[in-house]
């Protein structure tokens, strides 16, 4: 019987911060200039959230789903799993999340509100903050900008942005779609905590704010219809 | 009052240590590390080895792989032999293999690996995969990592030893986990090695496991001698005591290593590092004067206050 209970959090942190940051830099170098494209996609998602347009869900969720698959392949499978075998277990979860988001978009399972309300406005602001602000955490924590983690290519900002977008949606399925992103946010926070990085607090605050947004969203349509 | 005369000097040293000594900046040959005897065979191994947890998990980063290769080269040049790794350590095994290949497969290598899988049937293929990563024909020692599925794995390893595809069998634990289980295995199974955590701040094994190892003729490998660097970082805030010079220790790390390897039951400590100067410093700690029991208590008291 596996004696997993004998292991602590630090037992699974099998790489040093230096190695991890060099991995981030190598990933960015290999994928450049995809970062510009995914940041633009993130900003477009914020606009689609704040500005109601018919049929936007058919674009928003599938594109987001494809980005989860990009993260699964380009970062988790190709690079992160080399220094952290635990990432291999995350790959199918990320692919599943991608498939679910694509399906949710194509079948209209998670609708965005037909009018702008407090939730979508706050969500759009939070989304812009994650998409533009997350890469800046690298220099803010004393690392070169080359180690920046960008929405759509790296798991942490992608998971947090997804929680925000789902918080703006309607329908019970969005809660199911939040399971994997929230689980990853918790894993990311634990990893960053063990690495000695204060950014774990930002993950918790951003993820907590997104979940709170989902829990407090108005149930009645806003009178300010567009 | 301790004097050099009261210390154990070259008593544990043998001529069996690996050669190829590096030369210091002053052109002096590096000191030869003392060796300790593996009770089950009488084979001697240098008292300081090389761990690979975290430090050698550098993925495919070419610059970092070269850094690790330089550490391994310096390790062998300073008389080191035993390198320890595990399938649990990410890319550490391929990094060891890369370093060994660059050195042309050093003949003095003492390879210490582990089997770490909950399914006993996966043990042999995992060991075969580890051999492929190292690029060696066989391992000297294979240990059951953290006692995971230890009963079945020990049966497998015993069969491999009988078939001469490995030379020694062992078990490991760390950070004081499952000490009663370790004792039970040591008392009931014919193992050659046990690997535990031991340093002046983590001394639980002194009460039962180390005496049992002596009684049963089991060699002891010591992991986490510096608590993954946490201990030496804490100690660095305080000046090294003047009396450290009495046993030739020039750093806290050397004082800690001398404490560990001077225990009669300890065979080899396996500090991990990414730095060539540190690996040389570690090997140098296994040479020259060693602390006697009273001096060891003094070290434990000093480090325990850290």
The helix-strand sequence of chain B is EEHEHEHEHEHEHEHHEHH
Tell me what portion of residues of chain A adopts beta-strand conformation: under 5%
- How many domains in all of chain A? 1
Helix content of chain B: 25-40%
Poorly predicted ranges of chain B: 1-21
Over the alpha carbons, how many angstroms does the gyration radius of chain B reach? 18 Å
Largest sheet of chain A: none
Largest interface: A-B, 19 and 22 residues
How many beta strands in the DSSP annotation of chain A? 0
Cα end-to-end separation of chain B: 23 Å
> CATH architecture of chain B, please?
Alpha-Beta Barrel
> What is the CATH topology of chain B?
TIM Barrel
Mean pLDDT of chain A: 92
Helix content of chain A: 55-70%
In terms of quaternary structure, the protein is heterodimer
Radius of gyration of chain A (CA) equals: 17 Å
> Strand fraction band of chain B?
5-15%
Shape of chain B: globular
By DSSP (H or I, 4+ residues per run), the number of helices of chain B equals 10
Organism (chain A): Rhodoplanes roseus
Protein name (chain A): MFS transporter permease
Transmembrane segments (chain A): 30-52, 59-77, 89-110, 122-138, 150-168, 175-192, 198-216
Pfam families (chain A): DUF6064
């Amino acid at each position: 019987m596996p004696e997993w209970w004998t292991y602590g959090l630090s037992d699974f942190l099998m790489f040093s911060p230096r190695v991890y940051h060099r991995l981030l830099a190598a990933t960015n170098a290999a994928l450049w200039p995809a970062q510009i494209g995914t940041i633009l996609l993130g900003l477009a998602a914020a606009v689609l959230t704040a500005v109601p347009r018919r049929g936007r869900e058919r674009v928003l969720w599938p594109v987001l789903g494809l980005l989860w698959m990009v993260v699964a392949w380009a970062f988790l499978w190709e690079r992160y799993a080399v220094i952290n075998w635990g990432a291999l277990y995350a790959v199918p979860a990320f692919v599943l999340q991608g498939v679910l988001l694509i399906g949710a978009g194509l079948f209209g399972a998670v609708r965005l509100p037909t009018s702008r309300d407090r939730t979508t406005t706050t969500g759009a602001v939070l989304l812009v903050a994650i998409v533009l602000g997350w890469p800046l955490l690298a220099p803010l924590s004393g690392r070169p900008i080359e180690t920046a983690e960008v929405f759509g290519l790296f798991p942490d900002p992608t998971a947090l942005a997804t929680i925000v977008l789902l918080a703006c949606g309607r329908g019970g399925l969005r809660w199911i779609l939040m399971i994997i992103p929230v689980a990853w946010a918790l894993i990311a926070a634990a990893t960053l905590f063990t690495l000695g990085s204060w950014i774990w607090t930002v993950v918790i605050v951003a993820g907590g704010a997104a979940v709170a947004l989902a829990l407090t969203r108005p149930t009645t349509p806003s009178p300010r219809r567009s | 009052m301790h004097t050099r005369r009261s210390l154990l000097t070259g008593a544990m040293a043998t001529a069996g240590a690996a050669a190829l000594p590096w030369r210091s900046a002053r052109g002096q040959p590096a000191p030869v590390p003392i060796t300790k005897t593996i009770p089950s065979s009488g084979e001697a191994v240098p008292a300081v080895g090389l761990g690979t947890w975290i430090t050698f998990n550098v993925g495919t980063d070419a610059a970092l792989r070269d850094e690790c290769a330089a550490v391994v080269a310096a390790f062998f040049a300073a008389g080191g032999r035993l390198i320890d790794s595990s399938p649990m350590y990410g890319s550490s095994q391929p990094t060891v293999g890369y370093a060994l290949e660059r050195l042309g497969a050093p003949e003095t290598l003492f390879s210490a690996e582990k089997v770490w899988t909950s399914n006993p049937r996966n043990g042999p293929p995992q060991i075969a995969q580890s051999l492929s990563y190292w690029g060696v024909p066989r391992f000297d020692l294979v240990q059951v990592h953290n006692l995971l599925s230890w009963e079945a794995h020990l049966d497998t390893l015993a069969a491999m030893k009988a078939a001469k595809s490995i030379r020694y069998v062992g078990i490991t634990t760390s950070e004081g986990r499952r000490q009663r289980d370790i004792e039970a295995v040591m008392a009931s199974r014919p193992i050659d090695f046990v690997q535990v955590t031991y340093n002046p701040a983590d001394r639980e094994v002194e009460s039962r496991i180390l005496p049992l190892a002596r009684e049963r003729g089991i060699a002891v490998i010591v992991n986490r001698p510096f608590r993954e660097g946490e201990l030496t970082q804490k100690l660095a805030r305080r000046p090294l005591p003047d009396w450290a010079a009495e046993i030739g220790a020039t750093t806290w790390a050397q004082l800690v290593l001398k404490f560990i390897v001077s225990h009669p039951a300890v065979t080899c400590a396996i500090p991990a590092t990414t730095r060539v100067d540190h690996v040389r410093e570690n090997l140098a700690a296994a040479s020259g004067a060693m602390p006697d029991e009273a001096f060891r208590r003094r070290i434990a008291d000093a480090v325990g206050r850290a």
